[in-house]
Amino acid sequence: MNHLLILQVLLLLIIANGAPILARRVLKHRFYRPVDGGVCLADGQPLFGPSKTWRGLWSSLSLTALMALLLGLPLWLGAGFAALTMAGDLLTSFIKRRLGMQASSMALGFDYVLESLLPVVALAATLGLSLLDIVVVIALFMVLALQLSRLLFWLGIRKRPY
Question: How far is CA 105 from CA 3, 24, 148, 157, 161, in A?
Fold first, then answer.
């Protein structure tokens, strides 16, 4: 198990997931455009919900790409990592809306899985991650994400604690 690599991947996951939250805090309502354009499906629920924005997507892509460079990884790897993370996040939101859950609501055990699983599995060979590394990264990310969410709420950056 490569501990440094696991820490690098965890940092990329934290940046990819945290960038939209920080962008909302810094930019307020500027550049707020929901990814789904406010479209509702036949079930009466939004496709993804109002909290999934283009501002968040672009902030995740750019900051994660920058972090990859700072870690000595290729820019494309950081951008691809963020794109896969955001795809997992959107898929999670899509499923939660179909289950009738509100935007930004918590689904313990489900939240953070797809958004960490997609990039880690898709880029495992490129990053040199073993199956054990993948399991460790996803487990650690879920624990860290919950703790960071509480900290961000306490600091007034996040709207709800998890």
Answer: 32, 17, 16, 16, 10
